[in-house]
Amino acid sequence: MAKNALLEIKRSMEPHVGQKIVLRANGGRRKTVERSGVLEETYPSVFIVKLDQEQSAFKRVSYSYADILTESVEVTVCNDDGQVRITCIQH
After folding, report:
1. Are strands 73-78 and 60-64 parallel, antiparallel or unpaired?
2. Rg (alpha carbons) of the chain, rounded to whole number
3. Which long-range contacts (CB under 8 A, 24 or more apart) does 84-89 make?
4. Superkingdom of this entry's organism (predicted)?
5. How confident is the model at residue 29, as a pLDDT?
6. CA 25 → CA 4, 16, 32, 75, distances in Å?
7. Residue partners of 90: CB distance under 8 A and separation at least 6
8. Contact assessment for residue 55 and residue 64, using Cβ atoms and an 8 Å cutoff
9. CA separation for the pair 69, 4 (Å, rounded)
10. Cross-strand bridge partners of residue 31
11. Cα–Cα distance for residue pair 60/49, rounded to 1 Å
């Protein structure tokens, strides 16, 4: 069941490769980290986000689909106007 849910999350993210996204992730100790960037690539177990350079010292971050499934990461995909199109791609 969980494997099917992970595959479904991956499939729902694939059409958005190359689009701007906003990530809200659990930063530990009751902190929430918000980052924005471009969904660069999807792989069988993880997805890669190229971060906006002015916001972060890192160039890229990766998260697993299990992070979305367990709700430790929320993904928001934005359209060209900067408005939210899809919030929290979920299982």
Report:
1. unpaired
2. 13
3. 86/16, 89/9, 89/12, 89/13
4. Bacteria
5. 87
6. 23, 19, 6, 9
7. 9, 68
8. no
9. 11
10. 28
11. 6
Is the pTM of the predicted complex or chain greater than 0.85?
no
C-alpha–C-alpha distance, residues 66 and 40, integer Å? 18
- Amino acid identity of 2? A
Measured at the CA of 12, the angle between CA 42 and CA 70, to 5 degrees, comes to 85
Domain ranges of the chain: 2-87
Q: What is the pLDDT of residue 54?
A: 74
Find tokens 């849910």 and name the residue. 5
Answer for the pair 78, 23: CB distance below 8 angstroms, yes or no: no
Q: Domain 2-87, what fold? A: SH3 type barrels. (2.30.30)
